[in-house]
Design brief:
3 helices; 5-stranded antiparallel sheet; alpha+beta
Amino acid sequence: MHIIIHLILIFALLIIAVQSQGGGSGGGDGGGGGSQNYINPCLTIECEIAVFVSKIVDVLLAAAAIIWAIRTRIRQCTGGRPPVDNTVFINQNSLKNVNFQNNPFMDGIWSSRYYQYNKWHTSHQLSLLFNRYSYQVSGGGTDEIGSYIIDGIFCMRTFRMCLAKVYLVGT
């Protein structure tokens, strides 16, 4: 992604730097080629610098708009799904602030909250059961949308888990 952005910026700067002034001489009297009616509005070096800087700012604004559009499109295409697979996620290192003497994956009632559509959804209680042989999580609960079942995986090495919530029809 960074390479593409750099290539776009380099290309834009090359377009700005290479300014065509028309064709060459036609021979004979030395009449110039290109547009005969072109009048350069800038007669000083300060004016030329200001025009050059404004072109660079325009390119940077265009690049920012392109990057924003690409990121928005990626978010739309992924539909809010995480960027990595659940198995990859739970195997990533996350051993910060961990009490190694206690097993965090205990069967029982858990509280949860989640971030979706630019807001946090309030805490809800759900029941979770951990299968330590298959490293699978199952359970269920109810929130403001309806009743749901939980299915997921967990990792004792990294102390991470991934849960998928599926709402029951008619709730």
